[in-house]
Write a structure and sequence with these properties.
Layout: H1 2-7, H2 12-19, H3 25-37, E1 41-46, E2 49-54, H4 58-74, H5 78-87, H6 95-112
Antiparallel strand pairs: 1-2
Helix pairs in contact: 2-3
Length: 114
């Protein structure tokens, strides 16, 4: 999906090339077909080729993926998810990043109390 979001739209061969991995053409085509069946990707026919593009905005897809991740791995707990991210971060957060997180938490608290 990242590849389609960055390219805007692409054929199977273009996706395969952009991924830059030793992926079989049929495997890429199959994945695009599955994504199409799930409504994540749409396509149009251009001669004998199919041109694929994201069917939903990236922000919407990210929110849906994150929701699934939280439900699957953290029993639906946002608190557990954030705690895991903070404790297993590959790099330490900067003071500015921590301050922005505190601001977001405080904003969420204020909105909840309305």
């Amino acid at each position: 999906m990242d590849t389609l979001y960055s390219l805007g739209e692409a054929t199977v061969a273009e996706v395969q090339e952009a991924l830059g991995e030793d992926l079989n053409y049929n495997a890429v085509r199959g994945m695009l077909r599955v994504l199409s069946e799930k409504g994540r990707v749409s396509y149009r026919q251009d001669g004998v080729r199919y041109v694929f593009r994201p069917a939903v905005p990236k922000e919407q897809a990210a929110a849906s993926a994150l929701s699934g991740l939280v439900k699957t791995f953290f029993e639906g707990s946002v608190e557990q998810t954030v705690a895991s991210l903070l404790s297993s971060s590959e790099r330490r957060l900067t003071i500015d990043e921590l301050d922005r997180l505190v601001d977001l938490i405080e904003k969420s608290r204020r909105e909840r109390d309305r």
